[in-house]
Design goal:
This protein is an alpha+beta fold. Helix content is 33%, strand content 16%. The strands form four sheets. Strands 3, 4, 5, 6, 7, 8, 9, 10 and 11 form a nine-stranded mixed β-sheet that branches. A two-stranded antiparallel ribbon has the order 1-2. GO terms for molecular function: sequence-specific DNA binding.
Length: 597
C-alpha cells in the first residue's frame, strides 16, 4: 500500500483503467519531496484476471508479508484503484462498545445526488407488524442437523467431481465412494478439536499421536488421495468472470440450505468475515486490526437475536468488481450494495420488516432511504463525511462537552442521525429507531464510575450488531486444522465449519443442551464409525487374468520360488508356482486350477 497526496492523486483517480504497474511507475517518476504528508491515498489492489485458473495449487505456506517488490506479474497487470482518507477520517474512532472498522473509505457513487433538509426532531415511531413464529421441535441428532446443510447433494457433488478430476489425471481403479467422502469429512471435523502438527501423525504407530478412530476409518494413503483430488466443480466449465468459480457450486448449495432452515428472527447484522489463507492468490486480502489479517474476505449476513446470534444466513466471497452483487445495487457504493443485496435475500425468504445492523463501512443516508422503501429497517454507525451535511454539532465541538452529551437531526422523518459523546465521538444513523427514551450506562472516568446518558438507537446498535462477530468467534474455537495445498481448500473447510456452527444453533433452538465441542465430537464420531472403509488384512494378492489362466499355452508350467507360500487351491505351504499366473500351486493342484469347472 502506497501513500501519496490527495491533490496529486486526483488526476490519477479520474483516469480509469490504470493497472497497478502504471500507477507505481507514475509514482516512481515523481519527486517524493514534493508530496506533502498531511493527507494520504490508499492504493487498493484488484484481483488479477487469472485468479480462477487451475494453475493455482501453491501450498499455503508461512507467508505473513506481501510487499510491492514481490508481487507477481499477473497482479501488476491487474487494475488498481485509489481511494482517499482525510486526516479527519483517520482520527475518527468508535466508542468502547462499538467496533471500528479499519477498512479504507470508498467514495460513494449514487446515480442521483440529493440535498437533504435537516431539522432537530426525533423520528416518529413506526409500527411494523411482526408475526409470531414458533420454532419446530424436531429432536434431530447432531449428525441429522449437520446433514440438513451438508446434505447428500453436497456429498454427491464432491464424489462426482473428485472422481472426474482423478480420471482426468489417469488415476485408474480408485473411485471415491460416498462412504469414503463422509469419512474424509469426519477426519476434517475431528482435526478441529484434536490438532496435530502434521496430519500424517494421526496414522503413526507412536503411542503419543496415533488415533485409532481415524486410522480404523480410513488409511492414510486413501485420505491423501481424496485430499489431492478434492473438487466440487468441473474444471472444463469454469466461468472466467468468477474468480471463485472452483467453489461456486458449493457456495450456492450451502447458501440455499442455510436459508431453507433459517430461523425467523427480526434482528440481523451485515459485516465481513475472514478465511485465513497465507498462500498466493489474487483475491487474498489484508485487513489491519482484524484477528485474521490475511485471507479471503467474505461478506456475511447473520442473525443477531440473542437466542441464535451468529446463525449465518448468507455469505459471498469478495472478488473486487466481479463480486456477485446485482449491478443496480452497485450504484449505491461497495458497502451499501452488500446490505441491499442481503435485504433482497431476506425478502425472498419471507417478506417481513427485518432490522439490519451494520458498521460505518456500509452506512449512508441513501442506503437507509432505500431500505425504508423496501420496508426494511436499518441502523448503523456512520462516518463524518457520509452524514449528508446533517446539522448536528461538529466533532470538534462535541469533544469539548461532557460524557453522555448527544445531538441529533432528522430529514423528512425518514433518517435520523445521532452524535453521542462517549469515550469517543459516536455517530449512528437509523431509519426506524429514536433518540428517546434515554438510557443510562456506567463509565469509568478518572478512576471513578459515573452514569451517562445513552440514546435508544445506540443502545439497540450495541445489542444487535455482533451477529457476524459471534459466528466468527464460534468457528475460531474448533476450526479445521488440516491444511490443503489447493487455494480453495480453506474455503471448503470454512464452509464445513460454518455448517457445523449453524447446525449447533438449530440444536439449541430445539432444546438441546450440548456445547459446541460435544456437538462437533458427536458428528465426527458418527461419520467415522458408520463409514469405515473395509480393508483386507495382509498383502493384497495380484489381479488374475481369467482369460490367460485357462488358455492352453506352453507358458503355464511350475517353477521354484524363493520362499514357500500358500497354494491357491489347497492353501497348504508350497515351494512352487505357475510361471505364467504367478500363483503358488502344488503339482496336484496345477491342473484343477487351470481347468474351467
Amino acid at each position: 500500500m502506497a501513500h501519496i497526496d490527495r491533490d496529486y492523486a486526483r488526476s490519477l483517480t479520474l483516469c480509469r483503467g490504470l493497472t497497478l504497474d502504471d500507477i507505481l511507475n507514475t509514482l516512481d517518476d515523481d519527486d517524493d519531496e514534493t508530496l506533502p504528508n498531511s493527507q494520504e491515498i490508499d492504493i487498493i489492489l484488484q484481483p488479477p484476471t487469472n485468479a480462477c485458473q487451475d494453475l493455482t495449487d501453491e501450498d499455503s505456506g508461512d507467508e505473513d508479508l506481501m510487499t510491492i517488490g514481490n508481487l507477481p506479474g499477473t497482479q501488476l497487470m491487474a487494475e488498481a484503484e485509489l481511494f482517499g482518507i482525510t486526516q479527519e477520517d483517520k482520527e475518527e474512532e468508535i466508542g468502547n462498545e462499538i467496533d471500528e472498522d479499519d477498512l479504507p473509505l470508498r467514495s460513494l457513487q449514487v446515480a442521483i445526488k440529493k440535498n437533504y433538509l435537516w431539522e432537530k426532531r426525533d423520528l416518529e415511531p413506526r409500527h411494523f407488524e411482526w408475526p409470531t413464529y414458533i420454532d419446530v421441535k424436531t429432536n434431530f441428532s447432531p449428525t441429522e442437523l449437520f446433514f440438513q446443510f451438508f446434505d447428500n447433494n453436497v456429498i454427491d457433488m464432491f464424489v462426482k467431481y473428485s472422481n472426474l478430476y482423478a480420471s482426468k489425471k489417469n488415476v485408474l481403479n480408485s473411485t471415491i465412494t460416498e462412504a469414503e467422502m463422509k469419512a474424509f469429512f469426519g477426519i476434517l471435523i475431528l482435526s478441529g478439536y484434536v490438532q496435530l502438527p502434521r496430519r500424517r501423525m494421526f496414522w503413526e504407530n507412536s503411542k503419543d499421536t496415533h488415533n485409532e478412530v481415524v486410522s480404523s476409518a480410513m488409511s492414510r494413503d486413501r485420505f491423501e488421495f481424496i485430499m489431492s483430488n478434492l473438487h466440487c466443480c468441473d474444471n472444463s466449465k469454469l466461468s472466467q468472470q468468477d474468480r471463485f468459480a472452483k467453489v461456486r457450486p458449493l457456495f450456492e448449495a450451502i447458501n440455499r440450505n442455510f436459508q431453507l432452515f433459517c430461523p425467523v428472527r427480526a434482528a440481523h447484522s451485515v459485516d465481513e468475515s475472514m478465511v485465513p489463507y497465507f498462500g498466493r492468490h489474487g483475491c487474498k486480502q489484508f485487513i489491519k486490526g482484524k484477528p485474521i489479517r490475511y485471507g479471503f474476505k467474505i461478506w456475511m449476513g447473520a442473525i443477531s437475536s440473542s437466542d441464535c446470534a451468529g446463525y449465518c444466513v448468507w455469505l459471498e466471497p469478495y472478488q473486487g468488481s466481479n463480486t456477485q452483487i446485482p449491478t443496480m445495487y452497485k450504484l449505491f457504493g461497495l458497502g451499501p450494495s452488500v446490505v441491499l443485496h442481503y435485504s433482497t435475500v431476506l425478502r425472498q425468504m419471507l417478506s417481513l420488516p427485518y432490522h439490519i445492523f451494520f458498521d460505518n463501512f456500509f452506512t449512508t443516508v441513501p442506503l437507509l432511504e432505500e431500505l425504508l422503501r423496501h420496508n426494511i429497517r436499518g441502523t448503523g454507525t456512520v462516518r463524518e463525511n457520509r452524514m449528508s451535511k446533517c446539522t448536528v454539532q461538529s466533532k470538534t465541538d462535541m469533544k469539548k462537552t461532557t460524557g453522555g452529551t448527544y445531538d441529533y437531526g432528522s430529514t423528512e422523518n425518514k433518517v435520523l442521525i445521532v452524535k453521542w459523546n462517549d469515550n469517543n465521538i459516536v455517530n449512528v444513523a437509523t431509519n426506524n429507531l429514536q433518540v428517546h427514551p434515554i438510557h443510562h450506562v456506567s463509565r469509568l472516568q478518572k478512576r471513578k464510575k459515573i452514569t451517562v446518558d445513552q440514546p435508544q438507537c445506540i443502545k439497540a446498535y450495541n445489542a444487535f450488531m455482533g451477529g457476524v462477530d459471534r459466528c466468527d468467534e464460534n468457528i475460531s474455537y474448533y476450526r479445521t486444522s488440516i491444511r490443503g495445498k489447493k487455494w480453495y481448500s480453506c474455503l471448503i473447510f470454512y464452509l464445513l465449519d460454518l455448517s457445523i456452527q449453524n447446525s449447533w444453533h438449530l440444536h439449541r433452538l430445539q432444546g438441546g443442551s450440548m456445547d459446541q465441542l460435544t456437538f462437533r465430537r458427536q458428528i465426527a464420531m458418527t461419520l467415522l464409525e458408520t463409514n469405515r472403509v473395509s480393508r483386507k488384512r495382509g498383502r493384497p494378492s495380484c489381479l488374475e487374468n481369467a482369460e490367460s489362466r485357462f488358455m492352453n499355452t506352453n507358458e503355464h508350467y511350475l517353477v521354484r520360488q524363493d520362499k514357500p507360500t500358500r497354494c491357491r487351491v489347497c492353501h497348504k505351504p508350497v515351494q512352487k508356482k505357475c510361471y505364467k499366473c504367478d500363483v503358488a500351486l502344488h503339482m496336484d493342484c496345477f491342473v484343477p486350477y487351470h481347468t474351467k469347472n
